[in-house]
Amino acid sequence: MTRSVALTTAVAALAAAALAPAAAPAASWTAPRAATRTGSAFAPSVTADARGRMAIGFGRRLDGRNRAEVRTGRTRSGLSGDSILLQSQRHAVFGLTVALPSDGGRLAAAWLAFSGRAHRLQATTINAAGEFGTPQPLTAEGTESAYEPAFVAGADGSTTLVWSRRTTSRARPVLGSIFGAAFALPAPGVGSRPKAAVDADGATVVVWTDTAGRVLAAQAPKGGAFGVPVVLSAAGRARDPQIVAGADGGVVAAWVANAGAGNAVLAAARPRGGAFGAAVQVAEPAQRAFSPRLAATSAGEILVAWVNTNSPNGFAGGRGIARLQRLRTTAQPVGARIRLSPDGVRTREAVLAHDGAGSAFAAWLAVRGGSTTVQARRLAPGGITGTVRTLSRGAVEDQPAPALTGGAARGVAAWTQGGVVRYSVYR
């Protein structure tokens, strides 16, 4: 090729490149940002939706008072504006959880506050201007404390608040600016570890454990009563049941069970409008598994994660390797088992969240060499896993797991570090 021809070719290539549209930057996690600065903050909860809204709720100790607070923003730009103070008192305030409904409605928040010799459940909804009415006292009667409030995002677009007391479990639908009438769940209180899901038809399905170490399930059609409970687990003792509603209208439950050779992970599926089938072994007893967690994606996948340990004790807990298995909606495993955490890392729990666009995120606390950090990775349909990313800068204090949520193909993770709530956004 002559020099003049080569020069002409190079000039043409540069011109074409200048006219071509710029490639979109690859999505990644942002550097961590602070959601709080003063006081001592703890236990963040995160939520995001398909409209790009996000919110982080947290507890904070400031000027001798305990506070429940929320900050809001957009996944594109992060949190903005001042913190919204929901409650402040000298007695304990904790357990704040938040949810953005899929219809674009008001942000819902619920938390626990000590009053009258018990931890009382409080709840409110917040408009776009950060305004909210007097919180509703949802457990004002009696002296039994409330425990573990959690919002359930239904496959039918609903949002439901569930909680337990010592001997009972209840739920309330979120209806715009208010919480609807309470209804009883069949699980007998906090010790039964109840979990709930709402399917595409509005049916509520609850799983829990009984005193014999069995996993039970019961379901109620929309607006109807719960039917007779059925036993999902087989021989041995089971614990830590989880449940999720799939994109096809079905429901999948998972739990760990021990028949004397270590904790296995089992799952059972309930097709749309049907009954639960027989349990399927997802992970063998040699996994000595703890902390099963479930997520369903709009791509039709069910994901189950657990921690593979060396612990021979089936009812204690321990650190190990975070693993994941994709399931069909029948609860049958599909594809190869995936190792989530990298070599040399140990964790107690891996949390999962759907990104709202077919993929998911996994996050965990990574313990290595005496230091603890927050790690995460993206999970695309078909078992395609992204690179493990360390989200925190420096070591974080011990906590159950980072808070994690997703929406509009983006994700938000939050954790506590040095008394400050920090967060990172995948975008």
Radius of gyration: 23 Å
- How would you characterize the largest beta sheet? 5 strands, antiparallel
Percent of residues in helical segments? under 10%
- Secondary-structure class: mainly beta
Mean pLDDT: 94
Q: How much of the residues is beta strand, in percent?
A: over 45%
Low-confidence stretches: 1-24
End-to-end Cα distance: 45 Å
Globally, the shape reads: globular
By DSSP (H or I, 4+ residues per run), the number of helices equals 1
Strand segment tally: 34
Protein architecture, described:
- With about 425 residues, the protein is mainly β.
- The strands form eight sheets. Strands 10, 11, 12, 13 and 14 form a five-stranded antiparallel β-sheet that branches. Strands 27, 28, 29, 30 and 31 form a five-stranded antiparallel β-sheet that branches.
- It has one helix at about 5-20, and strands spanning about 35, 40-50, 55-60, 65-75, 80-90, 95-100, 105-115, 120-125, 135, 145-155, 160-165, 170-175, 180, 185, 195-200, 205-210, 215-220, 230, 235-245, 250-260, 265-270, 280-285, 290-295, 300-310, 320-325, 335-340, 350-355, 360-370, 370-380, 385, 390, 405, 410-415, 420-425.
- Helix content is about 5%, strand content about 50%.
- The protein is built from one helix and 34 strands.
- Strand 29 (about 370-380) and strand 30 (about 385) form a beta hairpin.
- The radius of gyration is 23 Å and the shape is globular.
